[in-house]
User: Fold this.
Amino acid sequence: MTDAELAVARLRADPFLFFRDALGIPVITPDQERVVRSVLEHRRTAAPSGHGVGKTLIAAALALWFLFTRFGAKVISTAPTWFQVEMLLWREINRLHAGARIPLGGKPTATQIDLGAEWFAVGLSTDEPTRFQGIHAPAVLVIFDEATGVDPGIWDSSEGIAVSPDDRFLALGNPTDPSSRFKSVCDSGDWNVVEISSENHPNVLERRIVIPGAATHEWVQERLKKYGGRDSDEYRFRVLGKWPKAGSNVLIPTSLVEDAAARWVEPSGRPDAAGCDVARYGMDETVIVAIHEGGHPARPETRQGQNTMETAGQLKALNARRTHVDDTGVGGGVTDRLSEQEIPVEGENFGERARDEERFVNRRTELWWGARDALVTGLVTVPPDPTLIADLTSVRYSFDSKGRVKLESKDDVKKRLKRSPDRGDAYALAVAAYVDQKHQLDLDIPPPSEWAEYGQGATF
Assistant:
């Protein structure tokens, strides 16, 4: 064996030596080391992980190690979107390749490195599962980045690639969706599972920047507060690298609503806020929920078969300081009429994007989550209306592959409850209006309907 062959054999047996001497990676974390050792010792490795733990770096380093230490090897990577393929894993691969301490060679492009006709690494999009079939080599490494969002068809096609004892399969990503194939392989017993928690990162443990760009102690504490504790599902998958808990998909627990109902008192006077879920004709109800001082809602007012002008008149007579209306479909007419009469109103389109797009799939999900938060903090109570209580305690949620909260659709709730959760929607709208009204008062800013009193160009 030549000196060159001996050197390559040493690097193949010791990826940490390759990382240090070839790629110039000075240090890796204990969790990254666990992933590397799993790839060395097991054919299939699944690494559900929190944010900011360096999973993309270690996947890129493993891709280059596998490719350059095995003659004729093939490395195949994919992710849920082409943007993720090109801009996440492959950007890191190209950065490491360009900055290597020794010239690695090959012909790198945005998503490919060619060392020969049958010796290469490539990033593939996920819109053509057949592209993952028929790929064979003396050694194959398949990498699924953001594995939760990879289509089951791609998983099926890839199963026929990494088949020999020397082949490897590495799946990494945030464990957001319990219905995903990523979750099923983690539970199968056929894969070695390496959970990676952001809490265990050296930056967090030492409360200083050991590795720039990774999770920090401050970031973890912010998420702990934002997501409501270590037991919340969002904290579990974004920080701890754990799957959401089974059976925890009811958005608002019954105990929370019961506590809020026990604190309720009959309100009086002008409402601080109102929410209106608009129907027109048919079985669905037009529902108005008004919230008064102290966060106490009145019992829902409901109408069937009421036209939009009558609904607008009813809201005008209610004279709430702030009103949010379901602007989807026929509700737009109510919003327009109230605006025309200079009534402080905001239209809410349930299907439009959320204000916090990173966390919520759409605005309806965000509104319901806001109602949940207001109940958790004791900002609002719940009136003794059995249908409203049933609505609030029945709606379920899940997470999409991006880790965003996703409320079950109104149609799905309707199939299960045999009615539409109109009162719950109106309550969520009213809570949003109440929160906005309180924020406006905290800033000491008068409502838009009163701005004219201050003259043009006035500041508050």
